[in-house]
Structure formats: structure tokens, C-alpha cells
Structures
1.
Amino acid sequence: MPKRLLPEERQKRLEGWKLWQAERIQKKRKSKSKRDWRDAILNHLGRKCINCGRIEFLELHHIVPLKDDGEHTISNICVLCIICHKKAHKREFLTDDDE
Ligand SMILES: [Zn+2]
Ligand SMILES: [Zn+2]
């Protein structure tokens, strides 16, 4: 006797699949793309603070602030550790809007 899915069972599976898809797309849009982008930049520029050479707690800093028409591109970004990044913003020789 061939195995057949009941209509309700089929519907349930379809709903589950849709949910899974939606979740996957949302995750991709939110955190993953940002993290991948950050990783790509770090790989390209080097995982090291350009000011003190620290290799942990790294952050990306916009050389020309986005609010001053700075571009969100690799040529306008440098790698700073969290400490130097804070200093940079405090001294305001380099300022931007990133978190
Ligand atoms: Zn540093
Ligand atoms: Zn910054």
C-alpha cells in the first residue's frame, strides 16, 4: 500500500517550511550580512589596530564620517581597537556614527 500524506499533514509541513524559510531570510538580512561584511574588511585590512597594534577587541572606524558624506567602503574604513576607537572619537580627530 503506497504511503500518502494526509492533506493536513502536507499543510503542516508546508507551514513549517515557510516559517523556516522566513526565519532564514531574516537572519541572513540582519546579523549575518553585517558580520560577514565586518569579517571581510578585517581580513582585507588586517586584524590589528592601526594605532597600537592590539589584535583583540577590534572595531571598524570610518575615516571620513558617514554624516560628512564618508563612504561605507573599504577605502574609508580603518581598524582600531576599542580603546583607540574611543580615543579617536573623544579627540574628534576622527569621528563617525558607528556603534
Ligand atoms: Zn589600539
Ligand atoms: Zn569610529
Note: Residues 63 and 75 are 9 Å apart (CA to CA).
2.
Amino acid sequence: METAAPFKEAIDELRENGAEAFKFCYQCGKCDTVCPWNRVRNFSMRKLIRETTFGLIEIEREELWRCTTCGRCPQECPRDVKQIDNIIALRRFAAGYGVFPGPVKPIRTVSGNLTADGNPFGEERAKRADWAKDLSVKTFEEGMEILYFPGCYLSYDARLKKVAAATVKILNKAGVNFGILGAKENCCGESIRKTGNESLFKRLARENIKTWIDHGVQKILVSSPHCYHTFKNEYPKEFKVNFEVVHISQYLYELMNEGRLRINKDYAKKVTYHDPCYLGRHNGIYDEPRALLNKIPGLQLDELPESREKSFCCGGGGGRIWIETPKSERFANLRLEQALAIGAEELVTACPYCITNFEDSRVVLGHDDLIQVKDITEVLQEVV
Ligand code: SF4
Ligand code: SF4
């Protein structure tokens, strides 16, 4: 038996939780036409919006948790319905009642881990800087050029620690005076916020902000578009702070243009670039990663069929990175097939969630020998 929340209470709570624009929807269905879910199974944002309008919100349904917040449908909506705000408000509502349907249950553990250790994996906070042990990375001190904030995946995940190491190697080559804050760093909180846990987001964010102020941080370099998005847009909006935030793809482009970083080797490979949703669509950073790759002699950069503003989501945003998705429903599998179809030897991207999902797809689809998945820094480290 599913629970339909009482009409007035649900609508009022949704309004309080930031969803209001659902009332403008006129059910055209353009959102469903572009939603990546409808390439792997049925899912209707249009229907969810309609149910919201009538207060018929069944908070036990997994449908509430499907949206990856990829940002594709708001581009098409003629009524500016703000589907993402709406879905997050619905999740806040469900999370407020402690309702997490089957596949979404890991969110509870993730929230517990973030509360206890500042990372989603339940790894010890004290080990957050272990990735940097053999790389002679300095601790950040006031007056340094930039704070490097690798984020949770690059700090703890075996595959993604290689991206952190590549970043350090490049920064050292360019002579950048940078440091890290290791165990003093928390998860940025972007994804847990998208699961409706507003109080945990605020707690993680406040602690990060306090740490940065205490250490005299002014400029922050990030590897994850999710960290970028929340530091650049959400922290200033919620907490009125104004740190300068740069994504690694922007920063490396800047270093090259300033002549601090030089390419001195060829890279004779066919490469394609996947735009992460939170770097591209949500923040408009499309050109710098491509410009970096195009500077490399020998590298052939071919575009994927759905790229830039229309980039196809990997499936990892909106907290979905922590939710088990059946193999037949993984968007990343389709993206990997697209890369193979254009003859790419390497699928390059600039987001830890995309890398995690694409690496998984390589194994699931048995394409390990056909294509490599790389972060843009892993390509750059080979040629500088
Ligand atoms: S595109 Fe906008 S107006 Fe059309 S059904 Fe979707 S939410 Fe409603
Ligand atoms: S934001 Fe993306 S995943 Fe969510 S409903 Fe819109 S198109 Fe689908």
C-alpha cells in the first residue's frame, strides 16, 4: 500500500522546500522526450510534476529518486518549471519522513558516513590525505597561491587517486605553490543535498567554510565538477561567502596561456571528450577542456554524437552515484558504446563520477581492451 500524502500538507511542504514552479507545467512532455531515462526504461518527469500539482505524491516510490539532476530537461521546458528544484523538494519531503525505497536505502549509510567521517565511504577522516603521502604535497598555508581540494573520490578511491597524483605532477611541473588541507577537508556536500538532506549539506559546508577562513584560503582548485558547482554557486548563495573557485580544466588552460605549463610530447591517439553535466550544462565550461586537448600534438579529438549542451548524462548525479542501477539501465553503457562507435581509443572526461561509471561500463560490457577511460589530467601528465 503506497502513501499518498495529504493534499494540503504536501503542497505546503513542497512550497516551503523550494518547489513552486511546478504549477506552470502544461504537460507538453518535452522533458520526457530528452530525459536519458527514456533511453533505458520508462520514466516521466511530466507525470511527477502532474502528481505534485494535484498533491498526489506517493513518497514510497523509487521514481522520486531517478532524476540525476542532469539539467537536460530544464533546457527544453517552455514554462521554466524548474524540474530539479521540484524533485529535490520531493526528496526533502520523503527524507523528512525517513522514507527511502529499496535501491535508495544506501543513502542512509552514506549520510551516516558523511556525518561521522566527512566522506561517503565510511573511510577514516585521518586517512584523507594518505593519497598524497609519497608525492611530497605540502599542507596549505596562508599566502600560498591556491588550495587544492581533491574531494572524496580522489582522496579515497583507488582508481581516482591516480587522478589526484596526475594533478599534483602537473601542478609541480608548472611550479604552482599549492597545498592541501587533508583531514580538515569535508565532502563538499553537493550530492547529499540532492538527496534531500539539507541539514547535512549545511553542516558539511559550514565546516569547510570555517576551515578555509581559519587557514586564509582565497582561491580553491577542484577536480570534481560537483565540488565546483557547490563551491561556486551554492556556498555563496547559502552562506554569502566568495572564494575564488576554479576547475582543474580551467586552471590548466590558464597555466598554459601564461606560459607556465608547456606541452613537449606527442599523443598519437583518437580521443573523444564527454562533457560532465555539472561542468558543462550546469556551469557552461565546454571550451577549456577541448582547448587543452586540441593543444596536444598528434591527438585527434572527435566529438560524441550528443555533446556540449546536449551531453548525455553518465547517470551519477543527484545522488545516483550511491544508488544501485541495474546493468540494463546504466546510461554510462550507452555513452561508452557511442564513444566506441566513433572509433575513440580513449574516452576522456573531467569528473570522478563519470570516470567511476565509465570504468564500470568497460568491465560490464567487456570492452576493457577496446577503450580506455581517462581524466583530462591523466592525458596531460603524459605530455607536459
Ligand atoms: S517540459 Fe515543462 S511544461 Fe512540458 S511537461 Fe515537462 S515540466 Fe511540464
Ligand atoms: S534533469 Fe535529467 S534525469 Fe532529471 S528528469 Fe530532467 S532530463 Fe531526466
Note: The radius of gyration is 21 Å.
